[in-house]
Specification:
Number of strands: 18
Shape: globular
Order of helices and strands: EEHEEEHEEEEHEEHHEEEHEEEEHHHH
Helix content: 25-40%
Largest sheet: 18 strands, mixed
Structural class: alpha+beta
Distance between the termini: 11 Å
Length: 382
């Protein structure tokens, strides 16, 4: 029986620049329940990035709202989570840019209820930052998320946090309804300069730790934050959009305002534009995204891995990593693949021997493939 092709894209969220912001893999499934949870979690572990999300289109809601509806699920490498901002932004971007929807509004059915995403060209805030103009580089996506309540933290957790961030000037510690700890530093600079010790963070109560501090007045930002979650194999989530579901209410009380420009101070960095809707207890997260990997490259990687497994007779699911093979085995594998599978397609004098040459080889091969070439070998790799 023929195997179905599963489409993936990788999107960097809350950024205008590739390889910045927070990456998420977006997987399109054709039918509800097409893959079981074990398969979904296995795929998340294979990608090994902070989040992969799975999309399945649903029937119309039967109400006056004609927006397309999708089931949306989020997985870290080790567990499913019930809310994720950057992967929702990535999924929305993938749907808009792929032409899979012809609406400017999408409804996502999730473990946190039905979430709304919109395409917007401009967003109005009190800030004069040039980031507010979505016409210059792409468009903004606006996510409507629920407010996440915070509460007082017990003295034991406060003491453990003090030990984890020994030497840091901590203003207060709170607990969120999502089982994360919120740690407020005396300044945004302290958040930026923090050198996290993940083993110590892993020992703390709760799921993860969000640290935040007030930004410098001339920085163009209102507050700064970082999110650490080594228990879910995400040492640092590069831009945690959903953290603003409790950070926005917190800073709203401190700063007496409802509109914020937020800097995620991870090594990759990112920007989130946030609006707190106090009346409806909603947080609007706005940002941009960039697609950095398309479905064709993923197909080709599957072809290569399959080719290796079939020839060498290994029982490994995917065989070795293509771009990180040890020198001798890597040279042998690429030479064998080049000679036996696709040499006739490309004018190369010798097999690719460096990572740069191998990436160029992949790209050239993608351009030479026809649709009929993908299905039979994909069947073998499944």
């Amino acid at each position: 029986m023929a195997k179905k092709l599963v489409q993936y894209v990788v999107v960097d969220a809350f950024t205008e620049t590739a390889f910045k912001g927070n990456p998420a893999a977006v997987c399109f499934l054709e039918e509800e329940g097409e893959k079981d949870v074990e398969w979904l979690q296995a795929v998340a572990g294979e990608f090994n990035i902070s989040i992969i999300c799975f999309l399945t289109q649903l029937a119309a809601s039967g109400t006056d709202d004609s927006s397309p509806r999708f089931r949306l699920r989020w997985f870290t490498p080790v567990a499913e989570v019930n809310l994720c901002g950057h992967a929702t932004l990535a999924a929305t971007h993938a749907l808009f840019t792929s032409g899979k929807v012809d609406s400017d509004t999408i409804q996502f059915v999730t473990l946190s209820g039905t979430l709304t995403a919109k395409r917007v060209s401009k967003i109005g805030t009190a800030s004069t930052s040039t980031l507010q103009n979505g016409d210059a580089l792409g468009f903004f996506i606006e996510l409507v998320f629920p407010v996440v309540p915070i509460s007082e933290c017990d003295s034991e957790n406060v003491s453990s946090i003090s030990r984890v961030f020994d030497g840091a000037s901590i203003v207060e510690v709170k607990k969120t309804a999502k089982d994360d700890l919120l740690v407020v530093f005396s300044s945004g600079k302290a958040v930026v300069d923090l050198q996290p010790q993940f083993d110590k963070i892993r020992s703390c109560a709760g799921r993860g730790i969000v640290v935040t501090g007030l930004a410098q007045p001339d920085s163009g930002f209102d507050y700064i934050n970082r999110f650490f979650c080594p228990k879910l194999r995400v040492n640092e989530d590069h831009v945690c959009g959903s953290a603003n579901c409790f950070l926005a209410p917190y800073w709203s009380k401190k700063l007496k305002k409802n509109d914020f420009i937020v800097h995620a101070a991870s090594p990759r960095g990112g920007v989130v534009n946030v609006h707190l809707d106090e009346q409806n207890q909603r947080v609007l997260l706005r940002g941009k995204a960039v697609t950095v990997m398309t479905v064709c490259l993923v197909y080709v990687l599957s072809l290569y891995r399959c080719s290796y497994r079939c020839r060498e007779g290994t029982s490994d699911l995917f065989g070795p990593s293509l771009l990180n093979l040890e020198k001798d085995n890597g040279t042998c594998w690429w030479s064998s693949f080049y000679e036996n599978v696709h040499k006739s397609r490309l004018e190369l004098r010798s097999p690719p021997s460096t990572n740069k040459e191998r990436v160029e080889f992949l790209i050239n091969l993608v351009c030479s493939l026809k649709g009929s070439d993908l299905v039979p070998i994909w069947e073998l790799s499944c």
